[in-house]
Specification:
Helices cover 30% and strands 20% of the residues. By secondary structure, the chain is α/β, with parallel strands linked by helices. It folds into 2 domains: 8-189, Type I PLP-dependent aspartate aminotransferase-like (Major domain) (Aspartate Aminotransferase, domain 2, 3-Layer(aba) Sandwich), CATH 3.40.640; 194-289, Aspartate Aminotransferase, domain 1, CATH 3.90.1150.
């Protein structure tokens, strides 16, 4: 879709670096402006502030549902209502939320939703999917085209295929696509409503442990630090005990972590397959590191 020069794109402060870099590239190429919506007192996107920032120039609201830097769940459905009120396209990055909580695009009110397979869906790496509302799909032009997504109609013209096919490539990993489908079916059979926080309150009770998750609604991602220990060292020590955690560093969420004065945090991604015994061993191991 063509974006007129200087049109703003509104994004949250807790945006992930891969998304923000794409918008910086669009700013350089297309002349758009990037406006970060402030957080409210809970640390989630301030819906009232977003509403005040909207005018006739705004073409896109792009929100990350669950940021990489914590367990925050942004109020996606409330943002969807604002987008519909103003007739603005709404893109939701659901890479961290699909597979750990129920997602309904009609309830959320988004026009586009992107998701990856490798995170909470536990599908093969390199898989993912894009939802585009039928009413707008033919208004969008992919960044790249091929003979699979468009038809060569004359020596100087082409016609982009209708529907979702315009976003597809001829070459794809069919086995991985099958794996993605099986992972989605498995998650739906298990029941996504059960995948919520089981670690956060136990960690917060430990002296010297600081839990950094924000928002009114919080998900299975738990981020924390331990006084006197570097997150990377804690990650290494936990991995030696066969406990898998990762770290989110400042450059991954530059606006968010800088504003909070955090260089990095330890990230535990609790899932449905984690038993109560595993949760207890995790908390006990953290306690031993204090």
């Amino acid at each position: 879709m063509a974006v007129p020069e200087r049109n703003p794109c509104h994004i949250p402060k807790a945006e992930y670096h891969s998304n923000y870099i794409v918008y910086l590239q669009a700013q350089k190429r297309l002349g758009i402006t990037i406006e970060a919506v402030p957080n409210d007192e809970h640390g989630q996107i301030d819906v009232a502030a977003l509403r005040q920032m909207l005018d006739e120039r705004v073409r896109l609201i792009s929100i990350t549902h669950v940021p990489t830097s914590g367990g925050l769940v942004n109020p996606a459905a409330e943002i969807g209502k604002v987008a519909r009120e103003h007739g603005i396209l709404y893109l939701l990055d659901a890479c961290q939320s699909v597979g750990q909580m129920p997602i309904n695009v009609e309830t959320i009110g988004c026009d586009l939703l992107s998701a990856t397979g490798r995170k909470y869906l536990r599908a093969p790496r390199g898989t993912g999917f894009l939802y585009v509302r039928n009413a707008i799909v033919d208004q969008l032009e992919p960044l790249t085209l091929s003979g699979f997504s468009a038809e060569w109609t004359s020596p100087t013209t082409y016609h982009i295929n209708a529907g979702a096919n315009r976003f597809e490539n001829f070459e794809s990993n069919k086995a991985a696509e099958v794996g993605l489908g099986v992972s989605i079916d498995y998650a739906m059979q298990w029941g996504l409503d059960a995948i919520w926080q089981r670690v956060r309150t136990r960690l917060a009770a430990l002296p010297g442990v600081h839990v950094h998750d924000r928002g009114i609604v919080q998900c299975g991602i738990v981020t924390f630090t331990i006084e006197g220990r570097e997150p990377a060292d804690v990650q290494r020590l936990l991995n030696e005990q066969h406990i898998n955690v990762s770290t989110s560093v400042r450059k991954f969420a530059l606006l968010d972590l800088s504003e909070r004065g955090l260089e990095s945090v330890i990230r535990a991604s609790v899932h449905y397959y984690n038993s109560e015994e595993e949760v207890e061993r995790f908390v006990q191991t953290i306690d031993m590191l204090l």
